[in-house]
Here is the input.
Amino acid sequence: MLKPPKQSDWILDAHSCPGFKKYELISHVEKLPTIHHTEYIHIETPKRYGLINITENIEHILDRSKVIDGFCFVSVMHITAGVYVNDAESGLLKDIAKWIENLAPYGEKYHHHQTGEDNGDAHLKSFLTNHSLTAPITHGHLDFGTWQQIFYAEFDGCRNKRILVKITGLAQD
Amino acid sequence: MLKPPKQSDWILDAHSCPGFKKYELISHVEKLPTIHHTEYIHIETPKRYGLINITENIEHILDRSKVIDGFCFVSVMHITAGVYVNDAESGLLKDIAKWIENLAPYGEKYHHHQTGEDNGDAHLKSFLTNHSLTAPITHGHLDFGTWQQIFYAEFDGCRNKRILVKITGLAQD
Amino acid sequence: MLKPPKQSDWILDAHSCPGFKKYELISHVEKLPTIHHTEYIHIETPKRYGLINITENIEHILDRSKVIDGFCFVSVMHITAGVYVNDAESGLLKDIAKWIENLAPYGEKYHHHQTGEDNGDAHLKSFLTNHSLTAPITHGHLDFGTWQQIFYAEFDGCRNKRILVKITGLAQD
Here is the structure.
């Protein structure tokens, strides 16, 4: 049976924490040429809401950029959408959708609707993801753990939208 | 009449999604000189709370930096404030204020108040924005969509505070 | 006695705000050699949940990187943990733990648990922090305000986990 955590248990001291095991040097790159590569992804979701795994799309742009160490910056160009990093398991996607909907519900009497809009919830939902994310690139690949995937979160779809992807870093000479 | 969304509708597959239309190459810049330009903005809001559009302030610093492609990093130097990107519509600002206040209310019996502070809510509110944001720079300008604006969110004002702005990237040779 | 804020008070105009005092140029660095330095921190927390101040750990890596101006990117390599910047006061840590637990509670009937997992709450909790953060580096140090500290937030511990730290920027010639 599930026991809820005690809040006092949450506070750990890094100095006394037995969990810190080691530092591992992964990469140290210097004085290589710099590349900044920017693409937009154009998208129109078929429904109003959507959580869409765009990891492969990002990896294609990374390949085209030729960057071997740096950052992949992904940013929505709209204020009713977001991006985030999490697991792609289908049950979890339902949990995330439900959780976001509960915290920033559709159909409330938002002040914003006095302008004629009906997407006040979408603006608030975007606070629960982020307008942008940064993913690390090492040895030419996204330097992610096993389950990390990049998602585009649409909260006011059925229209043309753009995702900006800017890959910056060092390349082979 | 407003109908709430179905959660199962949120899950979209990028491969089968008709919405992915194209990639558009916007910029590819290489081997130009690098600039890192850092300024602090000093601010003291006249009230305890405030959502303040600082996009123009950031653009002025961008102009001074001479960067043509890179990133504009904006960070509050305090743990009771935040920054975010969203729309500047005045009704929406009220919705955002109400939403943040509901999720992290002022006046609760926070443990933090045993130190003599009364700003426990401000620390939690800062989790709903972010301590920092990154905005992309392409062709010498903020590479934003039409409605994206940069906001400073003050949750414990009426005192001197600082916003760090670090602009990094490539410049014309 | 505590009075709640009025939402209309939150909306401030930067142009008319008396709080904007000055811009202060802190640093402008050009054309120095670039360094990208990446380490993983390996960690296994002794309990399921934990908020752990890792600022010193990050500073050690910053020292090894030799970067004098740039960014310190810190990213969890898992989808049931996060990182954030806030104060280290012990009462506040309890407030943060309680707040995160309330908004994304353990023990709910999450769809994700149909896979055999019991950590649906941890995935949602990670949305309230972030999978990554970026800290500015100026003059060879974290360019933070007095109270800013970097925390690792573990929501599904007692197992080996990794934190990626990528320090990028300019070094002395």
Observations:
- The beta strands of chain B are 11-12, 20-30, 34-43, 50-53, 69-76, 81-86, 132-138, 141-142, 149-154, 161-170.
- DSSP finds three helices and ten strands in chain B.
- The radius of gyration of chain B is 20 Å.
- Chain B touches chain C through 69 residues (CB under 8 Å).
